[in-house]
Hints:
Keywords: DNA-binding, Transcription, Transcription regulation. This protein is of the alpha/beta class and about 300 residues long. Helix content is about 40%, strand content about 20%. It contains nine helices and twelve strands. Helix 2 crosses helix 3. The termini are far apart.
Amino acid sequence: MRRFLPSLSALHAFDASVRHLNFTRAAEDIGITQSGISRQIRNLEGFLGLSLFERSGPRLILTESGATYYEEVSRLLGKLEEASIDAVRGRKTQGILKIGLPPTLMRRWGAAVLTAFSSTHPQAWFEVYPCRHDLEFATSELDFALVRGTGNWSGARSHLLFAEELVVVGSPELLPAEGLPNDEALLGCPLIQNSARPSLWLHWLRGAGVSYNSRIYGPRLPTTDMIIECAIRGMGLAVVPEIHVREEIAEGRLRPAFRRRQPSGESFYLCYPESRIGSAGVRAFRDWFLAEFQRQRQFLPPAPGLHQR
């Protein structure tokens, strides 16, 4: 018997329409016209005998039937995509290590880690995915993640790499070569805020024993990379993990406000789900990475001449 299946083009249009809830943006996403998207959705609704969307002017609202259908369609399209990728690669996606790196770590020293691993394990295949530091390992598909925290992730094994230390930096236009004369001088400078980690300046000031009686003023930026770039351009002073600005300090693009670092209370860890402990690929990467990291720390740029408080 002929299978009761809609066309793949219709499912592709449906998937894009649900993700954007807008036919125009869905059409731009998959490279067809807006009328083409509308026609595919009408054909799919006619084939199923269901209303998948309600129209409210330019807005699309997914119906209850549409939401239920999409949950299964999205999963099956993902499996179909995975099977297609497997066919192109000539191996199963499940045999590829999935490694998670937060964006700043990915850009600043992820390349050194992964290049070293691929040169010593040329037969090992891996993919890298951006991830958050508060990753939920119990539900994640990642095999590994290099993340910051206190070492307690539910459903994961964690291996301590190094403690996070904070440093205050600014551009040479804002800071003299010898740094600020005292801790209190900070409060007279524009202080760039990290909206993802809003307590960093309070942590620094309390650790330094600086008294402050009013709000800490300064622009709020969403990522560490953006904060570092804006500090280089002279927007203000920034308190950032020292590991992320070693190269900028060495090259003279940033200067430390003080010749010391303060621990943040968090550390960087190599983590992997407990459910993956039996995987030979996971064990190989774990053992190689921990041995190399402890032996040379070759993945990290040289530390500048700062002192821990």
